Amino acid sequence: MRVVELTSGIFHLQGGVNIGLVVRDGKGLLIDTGLDKDAARRALRVAEGMDVRIEAIFLTHAHADHFGGAYFLQRRLEVSTFAPGLEAAMMEHPIMEPVFLYGGAAPIQALRHKFTLAKPCRVDHVVEPGPQAIGPFQVEVVPLPGHAPNQMGVAVGDVLFCADAVFPAETLQKHKVIFCADMDDALETLKRLPDLPYAHFAPGHGPAYEAGEGIAAICRANRERLEAIREEVYAATASPQGTADLVQHVADRFSLQLTTPTAYYLTRTTILAALSALEGAGKVKTVVRDNRLFWMCA
Ligand SMILES: [Zn+2]
């Protein structure tokens, strides 16, 4: 875990999944907790090494890799936990994550592992956007929907912890079809993010970015990727396509090899998000024929 001090007392703990640590007068606020107790313990050790007592946790969204370590910290420490509505419900009932991925039915075993099914945690305070006190810290809660339905970031001073609103170049390169629940919201969030009045943007994966061209360039790259996915989906619907056909088509176009049910269902969610964006814009429609559902350009 690499400890990067972005400004005085505000740290970006960079690892597989990043964790934010804000320190004031020996008290600490964590932003996200990592995947599991090992990740959470590493963050706790960093805080303890600074003689800091963690008093509060802010969880940005209900993906297992961001809140999976929270149960461990709640057992070990007296902490208050804050999270956005809807996301909070999923943190308390984490089975909802694989249920969503699997289309609402009881999920298959292959989707019940720690990357998609975290241990439940308690949420003490459901947050709304805007300025507020989180324990002893004055923060601004910033809505960043799209990647997850009600994802929110948290700003302290001139640092915005922006969760998975933006992925690093490495993730765009490796995963190609980045995860997205609501494509219109995700694109809008990416458009807005670089203009927010902060000096540092600290995401959930990869490095932190400086205001200006640093954050603007990576937001642009993310937007272009989502638009390219949407465009591939749209172009394919010139002839009727089943959802599975579109998943295969887009994966092929991006030279993506899907090798596990988890990767398949994550990719399928982004394709479905592209389809609802296109449907909402009046560009594609559904047709049910021969007991199959087809997508066609409208
Ligand atoms: Zn996420």
How would you describe the overall organization of this protein?
The chain is an alpha/beta fold. The chain has 2 domains: 2-226, Metallo-beta-lactamase, Chain A, CATH 3.60.15.10; 229-297, Arc Repressor Mutant, subunit A. It is built from 10 helices and 15 strands. The chain has helices spanning 37-49, 64-67, 70-76, 87-92, 96-101, 169-175, 183-192, 213-236, 243-253, 261-280, and strands spanning 2-7, 10-14, 19-24, 27-31, 53-58, 80-84, 125-127, 130-134, 137-143, 152-156, 159-163, 200-203, 209-210, 284-289, 292-297. Strands 1-2-3-4-5-6-7 form a 7-stranded mixed β-sheet, covered by helices on one side. Strands 8-9-10-11-12-13 form a 6-stranded mixed β-sheet. It has a two-stranded antiparallel sheet with strand order 14-15. The chain is globular, with a radius of gyration of 19 Å. 46% of the residues are buried. Bound molecules: zinc ion.
What is the fold's blueprint, element by element?
Layout: E1 2-7, E2 10-14, E3 19-24, E4 27-31, H1 37-49, E5 53-58, H2 64-67, H3 70-76, E6 80-84, H4 87-92, H5 96-101, E7 125-127, E8 130-134, E9 137-143, E10 152-156, E11 159-163, H6 169-175, H7 183-192, E12 200-203, E13 209-210, H8 213-236, H9 243-253, H10 261-280, E14 284-289, E15 292-297
Parallel strand pairs: 4-5, 5-6, 6-7, 11-12
Antiparallel strand pairs: 1-2, 2-3, 3-4, 8-9, 9-10, 10-11, 12-13, 14-15
Helix pairs in contact: 1-3, 7-8, 8-9, 8-10, 9-10
Which strand order does the major sheet show?
Answer: 1-2-3-4-5-6-7
pLDDT averaged over residues: 97
**Oligomerization state:** single chain
- Total beta strands: 15
Termini gap: 49 Å
What is the CA-based Rg, rounded?
19 Å
The assigned CATH architecture of the largest domain is: 4-Layer Sandwich
Overall body shape: globular
The number of helical segments is: 10
Domains counted in the coordinates: how many?
Answer: 2
Ligand species: zinc ion
